[in-house]
Amino acid sequence: MMHWVSDPFRRYFDFRGRATRRQFWVFAAICFAALVLLVPVDEAVAPFANVPVGVPSLVFMLPLVCPVLAIAVRRLHDADLSGWWTALPVAPTPISITADLAGVRAPLWFLFDLVLPWLAVVALVALLRRPGTLGPNQYGPDPKASHVGEVFD
User: Is the Cα dihedral 66, 71, 73, 74 positive or negative?
Assistant: First the structure.
């Protein structure tokens, strides 16, 4: 079980290669569980540390940004997709900033600030759920098949 946590940290800045759905979703679940467990700690520690609620969680979760992003990119590579798809949830941000500067905020703020980012998150989750390609693809060998040769060699 520890390799589900240690592997993404060993490959902290490694955006090359492929990751299976299990590798990605187990690590994502562990990170989400840690965040959920930090909520009561946040509420207990924040008043005594004289910091806003959320800061202790942020300090803990900030080092997880790179390994989560790296394993997400490798997961997309397994489905033969570009890692740039991980930028999808932040894609509406320039539209929102441009609309704000142009003064188009009042009637459409909910579209740019709420609806589009959530639709982008749903689309990214759908891409992350896609099965990996069988055999090697442009991003590397099949991670599920990589151990088969070791058994018979």
Answer: positive
- Residue 118: partners with Cβ closer than 8 Å, 6 or more residues away: none
DSSP single-letter state for residue 133: P
Q: What number of helices (H) and strands (E) belong to the chain?
A: 8, 0
Token digits of residue 105: 């905020």
Within a 10 A sphere around the Cβ of 128, how many other Cβ atoms?
A: 21
The pTM for the full model equals: 0.81
The pLDDT of residue 146 is above 60: no
Which stretch of DSSP H or E encloses residue 39? Answer: helix 21-49
- As given in the structure block, the two tokens for residue 19 are 């990751």
Reading phi first (left if > 0) and then psi (alpha if -120 to 50, else beta), residue 104 is in alpha
Would you list the DSSP string of 82-113? -GGGGGGGGTHHHHHHHHHHHT-HHHHHHIII
